[in-house]
Amino acid sequence: MRGDLVFVTGASGFVGSAVARLLAAKGYRLRLALRASSRRDNVESLGAEIVTADMRDEAALTQAMKGARYLFHVAADYRLWARDPEEIVRNNLLGAQAVMRAAKAAAIERIVYTSSVATLKPHEDGTAVDETSRHTEQSAIGAYKRSKLVAERLVEAMVREGLPAIIVNPSTPIGPRDIKPTPTGRVIVEAACGRIPAFVDTGLNLVHVDDVAVGHLLALEMGKIGESYILGGEDVAFRTMVGAIAELSGRKAPTIGLPRGPLFPLAYIAEAIAQVTGKEPFITADALKMAKYHMFFSSAKASRELGYRARPYREALVDALAWFKQAGMLR
Fold first, then answer.
1. Residue 96 in domain
2. How far is CA 62 from the centre of its chain?
3. Closest by alpha carbon to 239, among 190, 267, 202?
4. What percent of the chain has pLDDT over 90?
5. Is the pLDDT of residue 12 over 80?
6. Which CATH number does the domain housing residue 105 bear?
7. Helix (H, G, I), strand (E, B) or coil at 319
8. Total-model pTM
9. In which domain, by residue range, is 124 found?
10. Cα 232 from Cα 252, distance rounded (Å)
């Protein structure tokens, strides 16, 4: 009910801040868990109660959740590369475990757990997959996908033991307030600045971050405990995406298609440099392995059961580019 206290993790981030802003607009009271080091640009205007707590700190979270009726666990370690890849797996698994245990101890009534389409296995033929196409730890490519997979399986196991959680699987969100930016946000910035002259044959499902936030609220209000819902938008070839970014930025669209094979040596070199600098490389071997697939997804279940809808992806690109320009990232 409006006016109830909602606890949100990850509210300083891209998706989490969109969820928090929507909840505030709908009249919910907010208590936001942020790390001490988290930027607060995205939440400082919300008038929310802020507590300092790491998503892996079960004791601090249990104390912080007291009095809250609902929980949105949006926080995640969203990196496609790290010096120690297993750190990503540990963070997301232990974070989900600590947050869900704290929620159970605090008697949270309903939980929306933010997973990812990273847990879903793309079809070889490029057709859109639904919630039934599930990765295994062996088929998931890269530490981030494995981390979200094992965390989602943990939440599912806890649901079978009585945890009142609904799972949402956003596809690839884009739009305003991508302060980090996310890996996809980096692509938008680089393409808008003319630094992506070529493309590989792959594809993504692009969705406006504010539509993802609406999907979270619909899951809270109408979702079934234990069910998962893809929150996606439009399936878009990567060539089409960078072409649209170029057009909207007043640049010439790239026309050179590259095979993935010759790019692997560049990825290995970039990763070796990153091991020294600590700065995430723009191209990685895991990203090239993922690019073999068109990562297309269907939100039919969310549409049917929740009434979920998403706007055209170009509107999301327009909003993203406007925000990146305002933030001074398009140079």
1. yes
2. 24
3. 202
4. 82
5. yes
6. 3.40.50.720
7. helix
8. 0.94
9. 5-174+207-233+297-310
10. 28
